[in-house]
Amino acid sequence: MLRAENITWEQGGKTILKGISLHLKQGEWAGLAGPNGAGKSSLLKILAFLEQPTGGRLFFQGELIEGRMPLALRRHLAVVFQDSLLLNTSVYENVAVGLKIRSLPKAVIKERVETWLERFGVLQLLKQPARSLSGGEAQRVNLARAFALEPDVLFLDEPFSALDAPTKAHLLQDLADASKESGVSALMVSHDFRELARLTQRTLIIKDGTTIAELPSAKLLSDYSRAAAADKNTVRHNVFDIEGFQNLHEVFSPIWEEF
Ligand SMILES: Nc1ncnc2c1ncn2[C@@H]1O[C@H](COP(=O)(O)OP(=O)(O)OP(=O)(O)O)[C@@H](O)[C@H]1O
Ligand SMILES: [Mg+2]
Fold it and tell me: Which of 36, 56, 142, 200 has its CA 20 to 30 A from that of 112?
C-alpha cells in the first residue's frame, strides 16, 4: 500500500531523518513511537506527502511517487493531528467539506457525514459551531472527518494525547471498531504503548531520525510492562495508572538508551 525506502530529510542545516524504511500493507495498522524530537511527526508528514523528503523513495500502491504527489492520489490519504484545527463553521460542514471538494452527490455526502458522526458518538453536535466543541468532541469530529473521506491510508499523530482517560478509552474503542469496519491502513504516532498494542499490529521505534527497533506492538507493551515492574522507581510503576501514562515518554526516556 505505502512503502518508504531509505527516507532522509534535511531542514535548516539539520538532518532530521537519516534513512528510514517502512512498508505499510493494505489494512495494516502500524505504530510509530520514540522520544520527543525523534522525527516521528516529520516522517508522518513525508509519508502523507505533506513534505517532500530530501532523499529516498516513496511508493504508493506500487507506484513510485516522484516530486509532488498528484492530487488524485493525495485523496486516498487522510491525516489527524493532535491539535487539528476545525474550520470556523458547523460540525456538519467540517466533515462535509472534503466530500464537497470531491464533488460527491449531496445525498451521499449527507449519508456519509451522518454515518461517521454517529459512529464517533457526536451526531447530536451536527449543527454546533465546531470552534465551540470541547477537545474530546473536536477530536471525535476530526476522526469522523478523516473516515468520511474513506481513505486508503490514515495518518494519526498523537490523536489522543490531549484527552482525559475516560474519553480516551471510549474513543479508542470507537476507533478500533471503525478500523475493523473500514479496512483502512493506518500509521499512528503515540507515546502510549497500550494505545499502540490496542490499535496497531507492529510498532516502529525511532530515535534521532533512525529506526532503532521494529517489533509487534503487543510485545512492546509486554516488554515495557516487565521492565517497569522490575524497576524499583515508583514513578515507573505509576506509568500504568491511567493519568500517569500520558507522561510515558518522559518516564521512559532512560530506557530508550537500551535499544
Ligand atoms: N521544518 C523544520 N525545520 C527545522 N527543523 C525541524 C522542522 N521540522 C521538524 N524539525 C526538527 O526535527 C526534529 C524532529 O521533529 P519532529 O516534530 O518530527 O519530532 P517528534 O518525534 O514528532 O517529536 P514529539 O514527540 O515531540 O512530537 C526536531 O528537532 C525538530 O525541531
Ligand atoms: Mg510529533
Answer: 200
The C-alpha cell that represents 185 in the structure block: 491502513
Any ligand 1 atom below 6 A from CB of 37: yes
Q: Of 192, 168, 163, 139, which Cα lies nearest the Cα of 32?
A: 192
**Residue 171, helix vs strand vs coil:** helix
What are 219-254's pLDDT values in tens digits?
888 877 776 666 545 434 333 332 333 444 444 544
> pTM score, two decimals?
0.87
Q: Which residues surround ligand 2, an ion (CB under 5 A)?
A: 40-41
H-run or E-run covering 249: helix 248-256
Mutate to test the pocket of ligand 1, among 16, 17, 161, 256 (most ligand atoms within 8 A of CB): 16
Q: What is the mean pLDDT of residues 182-196?
A: 91
What's the chain's Rg over C-alpha atoms? 19
In this prediction, residue 233 carries a pLDDT of: 54
Q: Following DSSP, what letter does each residue of 72-118 receive, concatenated?
A: HHHTTEEEEETTPPPPSSBHHHHHHHHHHHTT--HHHHHHHHHHHHH
